[in-house]
Specification:
Number of domains of chain A: 1
Order of helices and strands of chain A: EEEHEEHEHHHEHEHEE
Distance between the termini of chain B: 32 Å
Number of strands of chain B: 11
CATH superfamily of chain A: P-loop containing nucleotide triphosphate hydrolases
Strand order of the largest sheet of chain A: 6-7-8-3-9-10
Distance between the termini of chain A: 24 Å
Radius of gyration of chain A: 17 Å
Order of helices and strands of chain B: HHEHEHEEHEEEEHEEHEHHHHH
Radius of gyration of chain B: 31 Å
Helix content of chain B: 55-70%
Oligomer: heterodimer
Strand order of the largest sheet of chain B: 6-7-5-8-4-3-10-1-11
Structural class of chain A: alpha/beta
CATH class of chain A: Alpha Beta
Strand content of chain A: 25-35%
Number of helices of chain B: 12
Number of domains of chain B: 2
Helix content of chain A: 25-40%
CATH topology of chain A: Rossmann fold
Shape of chain A: globular
Bound molecules: adenosine-5'-triphosphate, magnesium ion
Largest sheet of chain B: 9 strands, mixed
Chain lengths: 221, 401
């Protein structure tokens, strides 16, 4: 299995120097292979989140295509793309991404509730324990710290166990110990056959990487 | 199933929003349900009044404040007592264009020791009556005997009981179905009985100002049915010319008068319902617009996790439908509590015939109110559902991380 981006660009309509638009990502091609952990770094504003959203099926590129194996993501209907994302691609966004009306435990099980099937309660318990948030299972998101919310979002994606995991600065607000736990978990996921992309500024992350990409001014060097 | 439990969680953990939605939709349902019930009760009252009044023309003594008091009889069950010479009946029958004529004698009982209740007693002649009997026949299967009475549904007594009028005891032979008019408080008897009662009233020294000295030769009103294909207006004029000291009144005129005030009341109710709806719709609109901002992040998360646009608008609409349904149900129940126990109060304050619809129609109006409310609730939510289904998780979840 592989996730492949072919010359994708993203323009935002915003005044930028001479031009009327600003190109946040410029003709980027990359491949994420199953079994590999890729680390993407780069300065703030270099276009990492934009790129991640595009390959995650969340943001339509202005140009270029994204393939999951042979499937052109953006050629799919919303219904099919949504279903595919739900089953096969897990995105851990940079900001907070909790449903405030659900408890931590319910949030973690949420992806499994959308399309039916059995809930992965065992995996949920397991990841809550690994990430040290099992005491918070019945807490509401509003009561959690930034780092706890982050770990909740990570547990949610690991519980759903999709083939592709895209994590946008997952360790940004975590302490060293938690950072290690999370990166180890991602490494294990990759070893178990998943394609993992971690956006990170930390040099620690690079120690876990099979592939390191550096982004600057919208391009990958 | 899982969606349903998600929906219940979403609703129960936003009690403020959920309650306000339920309250608003309840208001909509109350206004629709009570409005339709009151208007249809008035309509039924009017048509029942028309049906009970099988006469085209009523001839009453000239000095009777004719129009007003006839309307009073029909609407409030009071007519007062007035009499004219019994020869009027013959005069009416002689008149060209008259098919049937039948006399009635009115007597008011007193709110005193001698009488069980204060009612209007109406004596009719079983031989030729065409006004009261077809209706009485619905509740009574034998001719009304002497000293027997048939009572309107709102007279407080039961079949088989005896009933005292001017110290004379009458047996209650039947109780009539509700008409929604003043006739519901009247008591009917035959001519022999009314003469006994008149006599008794006179002995009680209750003066009735009878023109002719002899009781057996008075009538209060003569009901007239004109020949088919004869203009009642023409016959009315003839009667006015031919029968001395009497006035002929066309019932159609009375009906129009009632119908007019009925349509006035209906209009007022319609305006009230509109006002409630406009207000409720404005608030609904605000609630839903607020919801767009309030739920943007939450729904971006659903979207991030793979909910399709269709599923998302479906979820919002289902949540709204559930709230509206709850609100509509509560509202209709509350409306029923408001409108049914106070039927008598509504009737007297509107001064119009008022007949509650049969259970089948009530169920129909309730379903109608519920359906309309749910529909409107969902329609109000549709725009919001659409806007929220377009949230872009990428941008939304970046905002104010
Ligand atoms: N919706 C948008 N409209 C206009 N410009 C945008 C939008 N989203 C992002 N940008 C711009 O695109 C550029 C890249 O943004 P992006 O979020 O991808 O950067 P990043 O590398 O993730 O930064 P950070 O490390 O701070 O998260 C930035 O200059 C940003 O201002
Ligand atoms: Mg970013």
């Amino acid at each position: 299995m592989q996730l492949r981006a072919e010359n994708i660009s993203r323009r935002y309509f915003r005044k930028h120097g001479e031009a009327n638009f600003f190109e946040a990502v410029r003709s980027v091609s990359l491949t994420l292979e199953s079994g590999k952990l890729t680390v993407l770094n780069g300065k703030s504003g270099s276009g990492k989140t934009t790129l991640l959203n595009m390959i995650g099926g969340l943001l339509n590129p202005s140009e270029g295509k994204v393939f999951l194996d042979e499937t052109d993501l953006y050629a799919l209907e919303d219904k099919d793309l949504s279903r595919l994302r739900s089953k096969r691609i897990g995105v851990i966004p940079q900001g907070r991404s909790a449903v405030d009306t659900l408890s931590v435990y319910e949030n973690i099980l949420l992806p499994g509730m959308l399309y039916g099937g059995t809930l992965r309660t065992e995996e949920a318990e397991n990841w809550m324990t690994v990430l040290g948030i099992s005491d918070l299972r019945n807490a509401m998101p509003a009561e959690l710290s930034g780092g706890e919310l982050r770990r909740m979002a990570i547990a949610r994606t690991l519980t759903a166990s999709p083939e592709v995991i895209l994590a946008d600065e997952p360790t940004g607000d975590l302490d060293n110990e938690n950072t290690r736990t999370v990166l180890t978990a991602f490494q294990q996921a990759a070893k178990a056959g998943k394609a993992v992309l971690v956006v990170s500024h930390e040099t620690d992350a690079e120690a876990y990487a099979d592939q390191i990409l550096h982004m600057s001014h919208g391009t990958i060097e | 199933m899982k969606h349903f439990s998600l929906m219940i969680r979403n609703l129960s953990r936003r009690p403020g929003r959920t309650t306000s939605l339920i309250l608003l939709t309840a208001f909509l349902a109350i206004s629709v349900f009570c409005g339709t019930i009151v208007v249809s009760s008035l309509r039924r009252g009017l048509s029942s009044m028309e049906n009970r009044l099988g006469a085209d023309i009523i001839v009453v003594p000239a000095e009777a404040e004719s129009k007003v008091s006839m309307k009073n009889l029909l609407l409030q069950g009071t007519i007062g007592t007035f009499y004219m010479d019994a020869s009027a009946l013959e005069k009416v029958r002689e008149t060209e264009g008259v098919e049937k004529a039948s006399a009635q004698i009115f007597l008011s009982s007193m709110k005193a020791d001698c009488c069980s209740v204060k009612v209007q007693v109406i004596g009719f002649d079983p031989e030729n009556d065409f006004v009261v009997q077809p209706w009485i026949a619905e509740s009574l299967n034998h001719p009304l005997g002497d000293m027997e009475v048939v009572v309107g549904c709102r007279v407080e007594t039961d079949v088989g009981n005896s009933f005292r009028i001017y110290d004379k005891s009458c047996r209650v032979a039947a109780k009539l179905a509700s008409t929604g008019t003043g006739l519901d408080t009247a008591v009917y008897c035959n001519m022999n009985t009314i003469h006994v009662l008149l006599q008794a009233a006179e002995e009680k020294e209750i003066s009735h100002k009878i023109d002719s000295g002899n009781d057996s030769e008075v009538v209060s009103a003569v009901y007239v049915k004109v020949l088919p294909e004869t203009d009642p207006a023409l016959v009315n004029n003839r009667l006015n010319g031919h029968v001395r000291k009497a006035t002929a009144i066309r019932t159609a005129g009375m009906m129009t008068e009632v119908a007019d005030s009925l349509s006035g009341v209906s209009r007022t109710i319609a305006v009230l319902i509109c006002a409630v709806w406009i207000l409720a719709l404005i608030i609904l609109f605000i609630v839903f617009s607020m919801m767009v901002n309030e739920r943007r992040r939450e729904l971006a998360v659903y979207r991030l996790l793979g909910m399709s646009r269709k599923m998302m608008s479906g979820m919002i609409l289902k949540e709204t439908a559930l709230c509206s349904f709850t609100g509509a149900l509560c509202g209709t129940a509350l409306g029923a509590i408001l409108v049914f126990p106070f039927t008598a109060l509504i009737e007297t304050s509107l001064k119009l015939p008022y007949l509650t619809p049969d259970p089948g129609s009530i169920v129909f109006y309730a379903c109608f109110a519920i359906a309309v409310t749910i529909l409107v609730g969902c329609a109000a939510a549709a725009r919001t559902a659409f806007r929220l289904s377009r949230v872009d998780p990428g941008t939304t979840l970046r905002e104010g991380a």
